[in-house]
Amino acid sequence: MSKIDDTRKGDTSNEQLFTLKKWNAVAVWSWDVECDTCAICRVQVMDACLRCQADNKQDGCVVVWGECNHSFHNCCMSLWVEQNNRCPLCQKEWVIQGTGK
Amino acid sequence: MITLKKKLQEAEAKKGNNSLGPQSIDRRATIRDKLLTKEIAEIGDHLNSNCQVDFENPDKIYEFTVIIKPDEGWWKGGVFRFSVFVSEDYNIQPPLVKCITRLWHPNISLDGNVCLSILRDHSLDGSGWAPTRSIKDVIWGLYSLFIDLVDFDDPLNIEAADEYKRNPKQFKQSVDTYLYRYAKQ
Ligand SMILES: [Zn+2]
Ligand SMILES: [Zn+2]
Ligand SMILES: [Zn+2]
């Protein structure tokens, strides 16, 4: 089986993208929450997720954050944990710390 | 690829037309297409002569061909094509990838199955698919299969891996035989 090592990336454009992701992860607990993006649907967590936007159900879409301090849309994360109960950003077991708007 | 941007624009224009019609488009397909449009725009500028993407049909951005032309390693000089299908469950589920060029490779079977960890929908060690990954990572992974991700210890084509372990020269000959027959430019 061939595995990808995320730390080994070739060109600089890739490096930039990866740096950005790390920065996002760190930014979760800064006050600048508006800049934080859901890594699953790639929409800001303060906005409704891609699916809720498509369904026009913006109001019911909440943010969920785990004990690992990563946050996502609750809708997005509940789809993912059905398949793999790990945080897709840090691979730790997903334990919900809280939900909210 | 040079034509990628144009195709994307065409796809976008088509979508605009569709949204005026009856709202019969499957919702999951819409989500998938939205994610893909973003991802493809992102990879467009990073493709080079070793990795290309061909969208045969701009209406179906979820079906495309990745063309890998390694310029180093065992398969140097070959042109290898992979068909990619992105299901409605993207990006919770990984894209489905088949190799449509016959080749002699420990991690790609002769009938086109590809053994690449990020294409697996489930893994315990975090090397499998995750929605944080994107089409760019898939293309990068496929390219790396010819360079530094070649894995002789956990093969899909066991015969190819065994041949390499027995006799690397003979393995190279088999690689070349397939390459000249099926993968020449
Ligand atoms: Zn989301
Ligand atoms: Zn939602
Ligand atoms: Zn996490």
From TrEMBL, chain A:
Q: What is its EC number?
A: 2.3.2.32
Broad class of where this protein is predominantly found:
cytoplasm
Q: Where in the cell is it found?
A: Cytoplasm; Nucleus
Q: Which UniProt keywords apply?
A: Cytoplasm, Metal-binding, Nucleus, Ubl conjugation pathway, Zinc, Zinc-finger
Q: In which pathway does it act?
A: Protein modification; protein ubiquitination; Protein modification; protein neddylation
The answer, when asked if Isomerase is one of the entry's keywords, is no
Alphabetical list of InterPro entries matching this protein? RING-box_E3_Ubiquitin_Ligase (IPR051031), Znf_RING (IPR001841), Znf_RING/FYVE/PHD (IPR013083), Znf_RING_H2 (IPR024766)
What reaction(s) does this enzyme catalyze? S-[NEDD8-protein]-yl-[E2 NEDD8-conjugating enzyme]-L-cysteine + [cullin]-L-lysine = [E2 NEDD8-conjugating enzyme]-L-cysteine + N(6)-[NEDD8-protein]-yl-[cullin]-L-lysine
* Domain RING-type, chain residue ranges per copy: 49-91
Recorded family membership: Belongs to the RING-box family.
Spell out the protein name for this chain. cullin-RING-type E3 NEDD8 transferase
Supply the source organism's classification: Eukaryota, Metazoa, Chordata, Tunicata, Ascidiacea
UniProtKB/TrEMBL annotation, chain B:
The record's Gene3D superfamilies line, in alphabetical order, gives: Ubiquitin Conjugating Enzyme
Active site at C115
Span-the-membrane segments of this chain are none
Under which name does UniProt file this protein?
Answer: UBC core domain-containing protein
Q: Which PROSITE patterns match?
A: UBC_1, UBC_2
Chain ranges of the UBC core domain: 31-184
Q: Which UniProt keywords apply?
A: ATP-binding, Nucleotide-binding, Transferase, Ubl conjugation pathway
InterPro entries (alphabetical)? Ub_conjugating_enzyme, UBC, UBQ-conjugating_AS, UBQ-conjugating_enzyme/RWD
- Could you say which protein family the record assigns here? Belongs to the ubiquitin-conjugating enzyme family.
Q: Which organism is it from?
A: Clavelina lepadiformis
